[in-house]
Amino acid sequence: MSKWIKFSVGNVRRGYKSVEISIDGTKVEYKILRNEFNPVEKNSVVVNVDENFSDDLSALNIFTWEKNYRGEEISDGVQWTLTFTDGDEIYRGRGTNAYPDTWDDFLDCLDALIPEMKFIDGKRLERVELRLSREDNIFEELTVNRGDNLLTLEKNSSTHTYHLSIEETKNFLDTCQKYFETLEVNDGENHDLKISVNLQRHDAGEENFTMPYNDFSMPGIVKFAEEIHAFAADLSAEIFSPETLHITNEAERFILCKVQFKGNYKPYTYRAEDETLAVGEIVDVPVGRNNDVTQAKIVDIGYFDEDELPIPLDKIKLIIGKHTGNAWDNY
Kind and range of the H or E element at 180? Predict the structure, then answer.
């Protein structure tokens, strides 16, 4: 029985990926309609596939998917639409920042057929393991695996397992990916409390690194720990409480923040005196000759000796403080 797919996913900022696919047994004909903002040749391509390809699609139970999925409204969110026919049956569905249970398996099927589309980013995190140690003795280990949607926290004397929803797993791993991909580690004194990080990606790539577990060596770690703690809020563990080391100007170090203004991706450098600021927070800053107050998002934080400053100190404006209004919640 023949099958037909028309599928689109993406957003306005990054563009959309769209394909049309006809499946008749082991013969598949597909056409790439859009590939984000990359040019495409809208020519049909005919290939022969394994006889299990059609069965794999059927196993996704697409006809049981809901007609409309809607998640939390966020900036830079993802929208998708799908029309799928199998014989006389037809499914039409759509979603915004929310997906059916077999969504990843569906994208895997498409990537296997049309690898150049990369519906799943090869760098996407599939598994994160955080191991906390003191004097080289591991005493806490937190693991989240996309494959089984489990969050596991192992301590010396106990093991705690949480069954996450697909969306919760995605949000946890997205939070990890955002933090570790922008993390710039600061060199400093060696500390007994360390964290070892293992990141496993969709393309089978793997990364391992170990560093002191404090807010100087890992800028923004306090806020990150709070965010991941929310997925197991009833648990207490040291992994949710990194050490806070106070860096002051008495130590001749200065806190510099790179910020971005809404609608502008160019970073601007400001100086900060508030040691609690974290990447991702919205702050009030002075702008222009008249020092008009506006809002900006912190995208990077660094600590510098005066002779390391990238800009003369008298040329760097000071952040006024954290923005307390609610108009920028969806920055």
Answer: helix 166-182
pLDDT averaged over 10-residue windows placed end to end, the chain, 331 residues: 93 92 94 90 90 90 95 82 95 94 92 92 94 89 93 92 88 94 79 92 93 89 92 90 62 84 90 89 92 92 86 92 70 52
> In the numeric block, which tokens belong to residue 302?
């660094």
Count of Cβ atoms closer than 10 Å to residue 134 Cβ = 14
Domains of the chain are: 3-117 (3.30.1560), 125-240 (3.30.1560), 249-322 (no CATH)
Among candidate residues 85, 231, 245, 64, the one with its CA nearest the CA of residue 153: 231
Report whether 94 contacts 81 (CB < 8 A): yes
* Both structure tokens of 132: 């906390």
- Does residue 319 contact residue 271 with C-beta atoms inside 8 Å? yes
